[in-house]
Amino acid sequence: MAEPLTIDERPSDDAMRRVQFTHLGGPEVLEMVPLKLPALEPGHVRVAIHVIGVNRFEALFRRDHYVIAPTLPATLGVEAVGTVVDTAPDVDGFAMGQRVAILPIQSPTVGTGTYATHADVPVGALVPVPADRSDEQEAATWMAGLQAYTLATKVPIGAGDAVIVTAATSSVGTALIQIARDFGATVIATTRTAARKPELLALGADHAIATDDEDLAAVVAAITAGRGATVVYDTVGGPLLAQLITATAPFGHVFCYGAQTSPDIRAARVDVPLVALDRKSVAFVDLFELVESPDRLAAAKAYIADAGRRGALNIGIDRVLDFDDVREAHRILDTGRLAGKLLLRVARP
């Protein structure tokens, strides 16, 4: 577990760096550049970054395939864990030397961007890190936890409800499995191949389906005695979405939060027979709607912190790379082959 930086360990401006890109493309467009931050704005703190959470949408953003277009030169990063090294005069509740998690409450970056050795962020994006939680645990938790909580609370779920989670070996998929189970629902998790089904059961799913080999709707019907799933949480899209709608119970809900089958999220489409939507609803849900409701965001923070303490929410880590290996991290993102959260660790001076 990282120890807090002391105030006299604050580096000079020439020691600060961040990742940026000046043109669109693959991981090769990412470059490490010197960083000089301006005076802190009111309501902001400066954080020395320890560990950065890396997300698939950042790879889309790098190619201008995200819902928001980059303004070049562009930086990246919406989440991290680090130590407060400076605060604006009006800031209360956070002090220099305090370890904090930066939450993904803005898009496509939070503050000056967390793909950096240092970032200036609004206090509304911070939560204290408990002493018994490692940097890596916290950096793996918040994006996945907040996205999953947003989805799992769109409509109430509990005992007697069956929910489907697609791409369930991802960090958000893992969080959805665990939160839905914590709420009392029966979880049916999907992956493409049978080889990964044991992983889903180990993560807490009640049932696992390999969509390349099994008839999803038929298996769900067998599990639910013909009723279908109350709620579906899908990040795959494409042809699978039609199967998921078929597997949804009357008056059930399909919540989409991604489209892994489309290289450009803006090009993703829903193509299903109109009659398949009879007494069913389909909606796209983005994480950042949570920020628009202070009460929901406060409830999400409280639940995720409590679930972490109870061991009900535990996001696995695929691997931790050095900050200087950010291009390699994005090559991994482009493959889509992850089992858990991908993190970057910033070397301490």
TrEMBL record:
Instruction: Check the record and name the Pfam families matching this protein.
Output: ADH_N, ADH_zinc_N
Q: What residue stretch is flagged as signal peptide?
A: none
Question: Looking at the keywords, is RNA-binding present?
Answer: no
Using the UniProt record, name the top-level EC class of this enzyme in a single word. Answer: oxidoreductase
Know the name of this protein? Zinc-containing alcohol dehydrogenase superfamily protein
Against CDD domains, the record matches this protein to: MDR2
Ranges for domain Enoyl reductase (ER): 25-344
Which InterPro entries would you find in this protein's record?
Answer: ADH-like_C, ADH-like_N, ER, GroES-like_sf, NAD(P)-bd_dom_sf
What are the recorded GO MF terms, alphabetically? NADPH binding; quinone reductase (NADPH) activity
The record ties this protein, via Gene3D superfamilies, to: Medium-chain alcohol dehydrogenases, catalytic domain, NAD(P)-binding Rossmann-like Domain
The EC number(s) given in the record are: 1.6.5.5
Q: Which UniProt keywords apply?
A: NADP, Oxidoreductase
